[in-house]
Each structure stands twice: as C-alpha cells, then as structure tokens.
Design goal:
Strand order of the largest sheet: 3-2-1-4-5-6-7-8
Helix content: 40-55%
Largest sheet: 8 strands, mixed
Oligomer: single chain
CATH superfamily of the largest domain: NAD(P)-binding Rossmann-like Domain
Number of strands: 8
CATH topology of the largest domain: Rossmann fold
Radius of gyration: 21 Å
C-alpha cells in the first residue's frame, strides 16, 4: 500500500529523523518518495540526504502538491506560521499527519481548509530501529482509506496503537517520553556498576540485556508485572533488598510522577496552543 505513496516531513529535527530512519530501514517506500524540508537549515537537509538517501528541499521548492501525506514535525510554537505557508499548497485529498505534542487535531483543522483530513500521531525515538510505540488518533475528516494508509506507514516504525485523542496526553507521558526514563535508569545502573568495579561498557551490556529480557517476559508470557515481580522476590533475598530501597528512596512514586508530569506538560502545551489560536 505505501510503496506508491509520497510523504513529506515539514521539519527535520530528531523526531522527523527517527521516523525517516524507520521508514527507510523497512525498505517498503522508495527513497525518492520521501521528502524532508525545514525553514532555513540547509546543512541539516544535506545531512539527511547523505545519511538516508531521501529527497530534501527548501520550503519554497518542495513539491507539496505531489504528496499523499504531509507530516508536521516542527516545534509546536512554529506550527501556525508553518501552516500559513503550507495552506496554499495543500490539496483536499492530502492527509495531514501531526507529531506536534499537545496540539489537537481540531486546532490544525481550524487553520486549514474546511474538511481537511488531519491525524495526530505520537511515535517515540525507537522508531529509528523499527521498535516505536506509536499512538494514532484520527480527526473528523479522515477516511477509512487514509486510516489504513497511516497504519501501514507507521507500522514500519514499530507497533501502532489507535486511541481516542483525549488519551494522547497520557500516551505521550508513557510512550513519547518513556524511552528517556529507561535511558535515565540505565545511566544509574552504569554508575552503580562502575562504583562496584565493573566497566561502564560491561555495566551497560548487563543492564541492557536485563531490561530487554524483562520486556520480553512481559510481551511473551502475558503475565501481570506484579506476578512476575513476586516470582523473583524471595523473602529477605537480594531482590527484596533492592525493592525495599526503591520504596525507601521513592523510586516507584518517582516513576509515576515522571509519567504524570510529562502528561500534564502535554496538556499545558495543548492549552497554550488553543489560546494562541483563539486570539
């Protein structure tokens, strides 16, 4: 389905690159069907062309009219200005796919032509290796065909979860920001390993395999995480000691609060964007 489609990324930052890398890695879409553009950083565009073999162009030379999907990947604060520039080039049949945190589909619809199909997505940086957890919410005018096309495209980057847009903020807090929590955990594991005499590289390898194995256990056994935790926690054993320390130092609450704070920030961005549009 997607091998005949054309897609343009409006914005060429880390999120756009992660998605581009995932699509290119899958080999399902011809490289000359993938475009990236940004406001003024031509060096960045050349870098993406060299690294992935895709097409790049400046905003005033990108063939937007030829695209099937336009992916909004700029900073949320730049969205209104970018859409003003894009609006004359956008065709009624084109799907607008937004990865802008906190910006609702209705806000984008209101800035474009009446009836323009708009979809909100939230991948994470693991899309680079085809292992993203990506949330997908359709706006009012998205057709069944466009929904299927989007799912096919996003599935090249990992797993896709269709959710109500009202849940996109919590999805962002869990999946969009989630990789950073695990990287933060790995940094602490490396520090503990080094302090005990292991090299950073060995600590990282051990920690990475441990996290990978635990994730696979959750995927493949379908057991409740509390049951899996209990199975390896002997009374007065090493695991129990570690878990007690997590409780004593607020580890469990810290993880929950990390998700909640990221979720609340997504809501704040949404509210700021709503106020900006209504002015």
């Amino acid at each position: 389905m997607i091998d005949q489609k054309k897609v343009a990324f409006i914005g060429a930052g880390s999120m756009a690159e992660g998605m581009i890398a995932g699509i290119v890695r899958s080999g399902r879409m011809p490289l000359h069907h993938i475009y990236a553009t940004n406001r003024q950083n031509v060096d960045r565009l050349h870098e993406l062309t060299k690294r992935y073999g895709i097409q790049t162009a400046t905003m005033d030379s990108c063939p937007f009219e030829d695209m099937d999907i336009l992916i909004l990947a700029m900073k949320p604060k730049d969205a209104e200005k970018a859409l003003d520039t894009l609006k004359p080039h956008i065709q009624p049949h084109q799907l607008i796919m937004s990865v802008l945190a906190g910006v609702k589909t209705q806000s984008i619809e209101n800035m474009l032509h009446e009836g323009q199909p708009v979809m909100r997505v939230m991948p994470n940086t693991s899309s680079t290796i085809g292992a993203s957890a990506t949330g997908l919410s359709a706006g009012r005018y998205v057709t069944n065909g466009q929904m299927a096309m989007s799912q096919a495209l996003l599935s090249e980057m990992g797993e896709v979860y269709t959710i109500e847009e009202e849940h996109m903020d919590i999805f962002t807090g869990i999946a969009g920001s989630g990789p950073a929590y695990f990287y933060f955990l790995m940094e602490r594991i490396e520090e503990a390993g080094e302090e005990a005499g292991l090299s950073k590289e060995m600590s990282r390898q051990i920690g990475t395999q441990t996290l990978l194995g635990a994730a696979k256990m959750l995927q493949e056994t379908a057991e409740n995480p509390s049951i899996l935790r209990e199975k390896i926690t002997s009374p007065n054993g090493t695991t129990a000691a570690g878990l007690h320390a997590l409780d004593d130092f607020g580890g469990g609450e810290a993880i929950k609060q990390a998700v909640k704070h990221a979720t609340n920030r997504s809501k704040e961005i949404s509210e700021q964007q709503k106020q900006k549009v209504s002015i």
